[in-house]
């Protein structure tokens, strides 16, 4: 992969090192003889900034009461949202995590008339 990378002076070693772009992590830090080596972030990892020292980070997972509003991708971490927040556009993760599993009722009620069905039937429509 060839791309134009900004070069910076690494203050600790007085080296001119290239930064890896967002979506790429540092595979090998630069040395006196070799420039920074970058590697694309694998599935389940991301790197949001230009960096000359940071590898890709593991994507966050949404905890209890939260759903994945935007999935992690190579340049950005997962964005979680609250099941109780109004105005949420329901997606498959919302329907999986925010529906009371013992009934067909939603924890979140705005627009519920459009999506209250049996949980199984609704999940199969995506």
From TrEMBL:
- Provide the disulphide bond pattern: 41-56, 59-72, 62-80
Spell out the GO cellular component terms annotated for this protein, sorted alphabetically and separated by semicolons: extracellular region
Entry-linked Pfam families: TNFR_c6
Q: Which InterPro entries match?
A: TNFR/NGFR_Cys_rich_reg (IPR001368), TNFRSF_decoy_receptor (IPR052459)
Chain positions of TNFR-Cys repeats: 40-80
Q: What is the superkingdom listed in this entry's lineage? A: Eukaryota
Q: Where in the cell is it found?
A: Secreted
One of the GO biological process terms: apoptotic process
The protein here is known as: TNFR-Cys domain-containing protein
